[in-house]
């Protein structure tokens, strides 16, 4: 029966209780009529004791019959007692869930969710027993064998079954392994937008045992070359529409001996080879398992780029074991094979690739793949494809809520939304407008070793803290000094744990069960994420860079990011990278980049406090052209503040706290302020009128 229905649960509880107690009473009534009461059996034991002590009496007929009668009586007494105990246990098993759901619902949900995790763990262990080296690809092949004709991917006017997806990936794998520029096991960089070929290619490379670097298709020139180099890729596979971006870095790639393959039927650029024609000619025969026999659980599966605390994008190493655990993300949230999953987040991100794509491989669900997010098309797509599960970041939900209201806003089949970064007020507004959709907010990071899931549905929380989680994956919140940009330590040099209700830096212990693989070719940044001597001398923790707060009910809430990173439009922006790009411009001397809050928007928007070189005037058009050509839209500073000098600390670190507090209000700031204007293609003066238009929401950012 449905344990989520209180009335149904109560009815069945009372019914079974009545039946059990009636049966127990009936059985108990047998005891006196057959002299099986405790008193009679006790007296019989006393009577028989002399016969047991005198061996001559044991052979008399009376003693034999009495002994037989006593054994049967004691046996029947034990049976009846056991039946009563079983009845009480069964009744308790029904009463306890009802009592917990009524008087302590959060504890009940903890137990239910823990049960789900145990179920998933048992399934995982069973797979390991059948095949010790079981990877994500093996799960895909299982699904293909079991459901070859089920639809796996729907993209625009095309649809692909599991069998078709398998054959497409086989063709790419066969074409690549016979290519002179590829060697088995080579790391391959994938430079594509959201399209089925992205997924086919990853599966192909998994079949060949090659790690894959998922390049952000928005990055260009210096950032693109850096991302490619830090994973030591030998091959670059790019989409046809990204040919110009590849040509910008082609001389460096040729110098390094990199094989560049373009997913097109022809290429007129020397050094860039067309690859689509080779794929079409290739066989779709399965790839032998021997091609990936060298793979272990510690082998890198993908490199996913993140903008950590400082510097250029870093390649987080996601090994085979880590990506295998991602199979459980959707299934642990109740996603099943009959669900239709709407995937419009970038596939180069952890959210889109790991949670979305990898998660659906486990559940066997259908993916509705979109090139990018569109608020105007979102619900129409959901209705057209009968979508039941959607994925979001905070900005997605806000964009949906900001779209013009329609009479059919609640006319859809979406039952579940999975994601992270939704604000409490947007959460409420979303539910009120679009209906009773279960929202599963979670917290995780690409390289991190700790995560939370709000399986309770508590608005505003990112998850729930409980005993089992903390024992398996030890973590804590420690006090953090935002001025010094470091954890607060006591006289012994150890971190100080935050109390409940106080914000603190989330740190997670690095263990065999919760490892931190670090960043490829970047030991310095890897070490910066390690925190030593946290609770005792010699321990080692992962520094998430996130401030959290735990309330009295053990719900955990995201507070803010620390350090030199802010988040805008769902993307992490590293201020050091943006500063480096800005100072390349020949009119700027220094740039201190930080994020400022804008009412009604998630995260923080980019702002830069800059100084000019000597005898140079501010040139808004030149700076605009520079940032547009070098930075993706989410990383471009929307506001510029002119300063005579950039304030630094005693250790020569740029000071950001006061700048962040002052924001971009021309009423508070005496320095000249400018705003990026796409219409004028320049940075133009930020007036009070423009400022108030932004604050009121009439001007969009």
UniProtKB/TrEMBL annotation:
SUPFAM superfamilies according to UniProt: Acetyl-CoA synthetase-like
UniProt key word Repeat: no
Pfam families noted in UniProt: AMP-binding, AMP-binding_C
GO CC aspect terms: endoplasmic reticulum membrane; plasma membrane
Membrane topology label: Multi-pass membrane protein
Catalytic activity, EC: 6.2.1.3
Residue span, AMP-binding enzyme C-terminal domain: 581-653
AMP-dependent synthetase/ligase domain span: 142-463
Spans through the membrane: 12-31, 84-100
Location(s), subcellular: Cell membrane
Catalytic activity: a long-chain fatty acid + ATP + CoA = a long-chain fatty acyl-CoA + AMP + diphosphate; a very long-chain fatty acid + ATP + CoA = a very long-chain fatty acyl-CoA + AMP + diphosphate; tetracosanoate + ATP + CoA = tetracosanoyl-CoA + AMP + diphosphate
Leading EC class: ligase
A GO term, aspect molecular function: nucleotide binding
Classification via Gene3D superfamilies: 3.30.300.30, N-terminal domain of ligase-like
Keyword Membrane assigned: yes
PROSITE patterns given in the database record: AMP_BINDING (PS00455)
Keywords recorded for this protein, A-Z: Cell membrane, Fatty acid metabolism, Ligase, Lipid metabolism, Lipid transport, Membrane, Nucleotide-binding, Transmembrane, Transmembrane helix, Transport
One GO BP: long-chain fatty acid import into cell
Family note: Belongs to the ATP-dependent AMP-binding enzyme family.
PANTHER family (UniProt xref): LONG-CHAIN FATTY ACID TRANSPORT PROTEIN (PTHR43107), VERY LONG-CHAIN ACYL-COA SYNTHETASE (PTHR43107:SF23)
Protein name: long-chain-fatty-acid--CoA ligase
């Amino acid at each position: 029966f449905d344990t989520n229905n209180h009335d149904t649960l109560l009815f069945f509880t009372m019914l079974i209780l009545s039946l059990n107690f009636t049966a127990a009473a009936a059985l108990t009534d047998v005891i006196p009529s057959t002299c099986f009461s405790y008193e009679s059996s006790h007296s019989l034991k006393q009577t028989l004791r002399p016969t047991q002590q005198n061996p001559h009496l044991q052979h008399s007929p009376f003693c034999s019959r009495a002994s037989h009668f006593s054994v049967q009586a004691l046996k029947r007494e034990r049976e009846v007692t056991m039946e009563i105990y079983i009845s009480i246990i069964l009744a308790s098993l029904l009463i306890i869930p009802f009592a917990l759901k009524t008087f302590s619902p959060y504890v009940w949900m903890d137990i239910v969710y823990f049960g789900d995790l145990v179920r998933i763990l048992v399934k995982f262990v069973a797979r390991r027993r059948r095949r010790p080296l079981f990877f994500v690809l093996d799960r895909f092949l299982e699904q293909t064998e079991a459901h070859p004709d089920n639809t796996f991917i729907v993209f625009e006017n095309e649809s692909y079954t599991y069998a078709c997806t398998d054959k497409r990936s086989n063709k790419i794998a066969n074409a690549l392994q016979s290519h002179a520029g590829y060697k088995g096991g080579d790391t391959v960089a994938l430079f594509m937008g959201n399209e089925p070929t992205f997924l086919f290619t990853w599966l192909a490379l998994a079949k060949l045992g090659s790690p894959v670097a998922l390049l952000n298709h928005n990055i260009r020139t210096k950032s693109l070359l850096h991302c490619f180099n830090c994973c030591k890729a030998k091959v670059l596979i790019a989409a046809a529409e990204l040919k110009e971006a590849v040509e910008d870095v082609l001389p460096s790639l040729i110098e390094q001996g990199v094989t560049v393959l373009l997913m097109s039927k022809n290429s007129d650029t020397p050094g860039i080879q067309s690859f689509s024609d080779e794929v079409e000619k290739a066989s779709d025969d399965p790839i032998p398992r021997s091609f990936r026999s060298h793979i272990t659980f510690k082998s890198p599966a993908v490199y996913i780029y993140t903008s950590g605390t400082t510097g250029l994008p870093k390649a987080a190493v996601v090994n085979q074991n880590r990506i295998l655990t991602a199979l459980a993300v959707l299934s642990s949230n109740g996603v099943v094979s009959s669900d239709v999953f709407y995937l419009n987040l970038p596939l180069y991100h952890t959210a889109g690739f790991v949670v979305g794509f990898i998660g659906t491989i486990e559940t066997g669900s259908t993916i509705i793949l979109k090139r990018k997010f569109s608020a105007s098309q979102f619900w129409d797509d959901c209705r057209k494809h009968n979508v039941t599960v959607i994925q979001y970041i905070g900005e997605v939900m806000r964009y949906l809520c900001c779209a013009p209201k329609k009479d059919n806003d609640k006319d859809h089949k979406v039952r579940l939304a999975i994601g992270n970064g939704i604000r409490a007020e947007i959460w409420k507004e979303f539910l009120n407008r679009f209906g009773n959709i279960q929202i599963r907010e979670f917290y995780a990071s690409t390289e991190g070793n700790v995560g939370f899931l709000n399986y309770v549905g508590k608005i505003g929380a990112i998850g729930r803290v409980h005993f089992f989680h903390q024992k398996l994956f030890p973590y804590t919140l420690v006090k953090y000094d935002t001025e010094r940009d470091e954890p607060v330590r006591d006289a012994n040099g150890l971190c100080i744990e935050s109390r409940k209700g106080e914000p603190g830096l989330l740190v997670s212990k690095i263990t065999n069960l919760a490892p931190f693989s670090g960043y490829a070719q970047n030991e310095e940044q890897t070490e910066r994420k390690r925190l030593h001597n946290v609770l005792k001398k010699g321990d080692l923790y992962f520094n998430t860079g996130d401030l959290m707060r735990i309330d009295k009910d053990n719900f955990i809430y995201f507070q803010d990011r620390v350090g030199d990173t802010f988040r805008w439009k769902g993307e992490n922006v590293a201020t050091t990278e943006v500063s480096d790009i800005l100072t390349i411009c020949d009119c700027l001397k220094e740039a201190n980049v930080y994020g400022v809050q804008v009412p009604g928007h998630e995260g923080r928007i980019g702002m830069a406090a800059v100084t000019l070189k000597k005898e140079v005037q501010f040139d808004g058009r030149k700076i605009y052209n520079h940032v547009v050509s070098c930075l993706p839209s989410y990383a471009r500073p929307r506001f510029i503040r002119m300063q005579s000098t950039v304030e630094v600390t005693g250790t020569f670190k740029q000071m950001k706290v006061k700048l962040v507090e002052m924001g971009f209000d021309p009423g508070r700031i005496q320095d000249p302020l400018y705003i990026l204007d796409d219409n004028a293609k320049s940075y133009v003066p930020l007036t009070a009128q423009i400022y108030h238009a932004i604050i009121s929401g009439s001007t969009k950012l």
